[in-house]
Every structure is written in structure tokens, then in C-alpha cells.
């Protein structure tokens, strides 16, 4: 699937990858993920895309974004939009598809292999366009959830499909031990 001398670029749809890993019950260690793909080829760039809620006092994703930014990932962020849906529930929207697609098309002339971490079927035309430029495309997601986290047409379009669950032992973070007071907090919230 990979050749040691090929130039790779990773394109990580942050919210999609997070949802897939969570559905498979593990957390990703991004240092291990980056090292794994550096081992598989010549890693040119690792992009991570996510929307951030700007007006929150504390954002749970902020420590991850900062760590990635300092540790070899090219961070692409934008403010998330907050709105109220027709049922009156507060929703947050932060689609990064266009930013990812533009960066991928710009990088296509400088890479041999694109690795897309997303199962979003909206990326099928992007994958086809990248392939027309002579770049091989691997898609990382999962079919081991119900329903599968990858769109069937995206999986068919890709040159390779990499099952995220099979990367669990390579890029998964070991589970943190539960501390005694964590159990008490969980019980008091129930």
C-alpha cells in the first residue's frame, strides 16, 4: 500500500476522525500517528482541520489544537457557527470540507500519496480529482461500526481503504486508569 520513497501528505478531518475513534472506543495518540506515517513514506505535511467555538471560556479541544500546532501538524481552524435549530436546540456547525479540498488540490503536484482521515462521502469528488493528477489516495475510516462511518462511494473511489480499527494498536492511546474520585464524580452526576 505504501512505498518508502513516496511523498505523503495527511489530511485529517478532525471531527470525523474523532467520531470514528470514539465509536471504536479508543483515543488517538497523534504523535504515534505522525510517526507511523513517517515510517511508511516521506511525510511532506500533516494537516489537521477543525472548527473552534470562539466565545467559550474554555474549549476542550484547545489543548489538542495547541499540542498539534507545536508538534509538526499544520493546523487549519476557523470559528464554528452557533445557531438554534427548528426545535429550539442550540447547535454548532463548523464544516472544514472546502479548506481541506483546497489544500489537497494545492498539494497534489508535490505529493505521490494522499492519506485522507475521513469517511465523509462529500470528499469523493476530491479523491477523484486528486487521482486524475496521478496521486494515489488512501482513506482511513471504519466499517466496523453500525452504521459504518465511511460512505460507500468514498471507499470505492479510494485506491486504498485503511480500517481505523486495525490502526488501534499502533496509534491508540492506552486507556487512562480511573482514579477513585472519578468514580465518585460519575456517580454523583447520575
TrEMBL record:
The molecular function terms in GO held by this entry are:
RNA nuclease activity
Q: Which residues form the NYN domain?
A: 7-165
Signal sequence span per UniProt? none
Q: Where are the transmembrane segments?
A: none
State the InterPro entries in the record.
LabA, NYN
* Protein name per UniProt: Uncharacterized conserved protein, LabA/DUF88 family
Species, as recorded: Albimonas donghaensis
Lineage, uppermost ranks: Bacteria, Pseudomonadati, Pseudomonadota, Alphaproteobacteria, Rhodobacterales
